[in-house]
Design a protein that fits this description.
Length: about 550
């Protein structure tokens, strides 16, 4: 666009530029602004006459500074004066002097200015997140590393801001509202960056990082962000939570680790609506270091078989005497330096980072090989159930993995059962039904684990593919003390009868519980009354005892 009121100059620019560019020529800034507002992205350069009437050149530059849609279009001022200072201060990018120089110089100056702006815009696109206006995460960490040597004097904090259950905003209110919330949070953070002497980025969909001067309390920040959220959202379980690592250790730990620690503090209060700001402390630090070690060591644990598969027997109890029915494979970690590691310490960790798939696959293979060894040594089959995590369900190769494992060990599907928790059914019912239906058609038996804790509907139970229903141990252990839990156990057994599938009770610890479960009609029990989970060599005694009963 050429903004010029001199016809001779208009003609000159038209002749010089028309072979390379589409030219719009206007005689005043008012007309120019109307065209630019209508289609700002049409223009890659503005040529602006400085000597327009009523100082409108200066007014136009001021307007350009105030309107964001104009700031990405470079301006070359056409001037006959030596004093260009005012135009420079107002953001003029380049000058062409009158009398107009040779056409080649005019064209080269225009091309150079456009090229510089295109490079600048490209940098800005990689520097800034379009939605929030904050830095992108890659630029954030790169910039942070550059300024660290200049910023060693003041105490600093790493802050992570997360919108809990953000996906519900998109599902309930639409993606447009979700984007608006993120943009508003970005605007607010940009407003407080100067006060906090901070830089910030949008780290992922609904997570923001802030590196700022140390603050004793971040409740005010959380409250302000929550106010933005509740302005648009009326769902009570969507909230802003904040995790902080105070006094980051500069020079010793990389910035990514600072925010990993702040994020772990933030994640610690997930689901706890009584706390909205959490601080990374020495306890979390120790836990974090231990988890990092477990993640690092699990590969060697599999290679050296420090991860061991133990087996807990299951006994059929309807009859004169209980008899060995099957077993459940359970993982145990005997660490060479840390000793016995509780499964509760590493299974949830590996579920959160995806390593559970590797661990589960290891257990599946070990269990199948052990079934084969018992068959070969004792001429006796102990069907074993293995656990399948909710993450495994999304593996498109899951069915092939099981089929190959059975083929490698010359086993039939009836000798190998699959346990899936009720919560996995509740979370992804349709996807799970499709996977398990296909596996049942190949002969696999499906056992629903922890029944009574996963909130699946009774209507869903008639549709989902199960062959065995397993009562969660929390009901069994307290059924003699609490009438409600006893009724729950009776109800689950009745449901199993209605579905015409066997019912397994886990967590049975004494004979009184066994008798009560037998009276209720429970088919199979598992628990410390018969045995804790044991190593394969110790399980052999149960097989030998069972075989001896056959010969009597």
């Amino acid at each position: 666009m050429v903004i010029e009121d001199d016809p001779d100059c208009q003609e000159t620019f038209q002749n010089v530029l028309e072979e390379s560019y589409n030219i719009t020529v206007v005689g005043n800034t008012q007309e120019a602004l109307l065209l630019l507002m209508d289609a700002p992205t049409t223009y890659t350069l503005i040529l602006l006459e400085q000597d327009l009437p009523d100082d409108t050149c200066i007014e136009f530059l001021k307007q350009r500074n105030a309107q964001s849609f104009l700031q990405n279009i470079p301006v070359i001022v056409i001037t006959g004066e030596n004093d260009e200072n005012r135009c420079y201060k107002l953001g003029a990018d380049e000058f062409i002097r009158k009398p107009l120089s040779s056409p080649d110089i005019i064209l080269a100056r225009c091309e150079r200015t456009i090229a510089l702006y295109e490079s600048k815009n490209l940098v800005q696109q990689t520097e800034r997140d379009k939605l929030s206006g904050l830095y992108t995460i890659d630029y954030f960490f790169e910039y942070l590393k550059q300024i660290l040597p200049l910023d060693m004097g003041s105490d600093r904090d790493a802050v992570v801001i997360d919108i809990e259950h953000f996906r519900l905003i998109n599902e309930i209110y639409g993606r447009g509202t979700g984007d608006l919330v993120l943009a508003e949070i970005g605007v607010y953070l940009q407003q407080v960056l100067t006060t906090l002497n901070a830089i910030a980025c949008r780290a992922s969909a609904d997570v923001f990082y802030v590196y700022c001067i140390h603050q004793d309390d971040y409740q005010e920040l959380q409250t302000a962000l929550q106010t933005i959220l509740t302005h648009y959202i009326k769902v009570s379980n969507i909230r802003v939570r904040v995790g902080v690592w105070h006094y980051v250790e500069r020079g010793m730990i990389d910035p990514e680790t600072w925010f990993d620690r702040a994020k772990s503090a933030c994640d610690r209060i997930s689901g706890n609506f009584t706390i909205s700001v959490s601080t990374y402390n020495s306890g979390l630090h120790s836990k974090h270091l231990r988890e990092e070690r477990l993640i690092r060591d699990v590969y060697e644990a599999i290679e050296r078989k420090n991860l061991r598969v133990y087996y807990q027997p299951k006994y059929a109890i309807q009859g004169d005497k209980p008899h060995l029915r099957s077993a459940e494979a359970l993982i145990r970690w005997i660490h060479p330096t840390l000793g016995f590691i509780n499964p509760g310490d590493f299974i949830p960790l590996f579920e959160s980072n995806g390593l559970i798939q590797m661990v589960d696959y290891y257990v599946w293979k070990e269990a199948a090989a052990q079934i084969r060894r018992w068959k070969d040594e004792y001429d006796f089959t102990v069907p074993v159930s293995v656990n399948v995590s909710r993450i495994d369900i999304y593996d498109p190769d899951l069915e092939n993995k099981f089929c190959n494992i059975l083929k490698e060990n010359n086993l039939s599907p009836s000798e190998y059962m699959i346990e899936i928790t009720e919560s996995a059914y509740a979370e992804n019912a349709q996807g799970l039904i499709e996977v398990l239906d296909s596996m049942r058609k190949k002969g696999f038996k499906i056992e629903m684990d922890d029944f009574g804790t996963g909130y699946s509907s009774l209507g869903m139970l008639t549709e989902i593919p199960i062959d065995i229903l397993k009562i969660d141990m929390s009901f069994v252990r307290s059924m003699e003390k609490h009438e409600k839990n006893k009724r729950m156990v009776e109800l689950i057994i009745d449901i199993a009868k209605f579905l015409k599938v066997p019912c397994v009770a886990e967590g049975v610890e004494n004979e009184s519980q066994l008798r009560a479960l037998r009276r209720m009609g429970c088919d199979v029990i598992q628990g410390y009354f018969f045995s804790k989970p044991v190593a394969p060599e110790d399980f052999a005694k149960f097989i030998e005892k069972e075989k001896s009963l056959w010969t009597k």
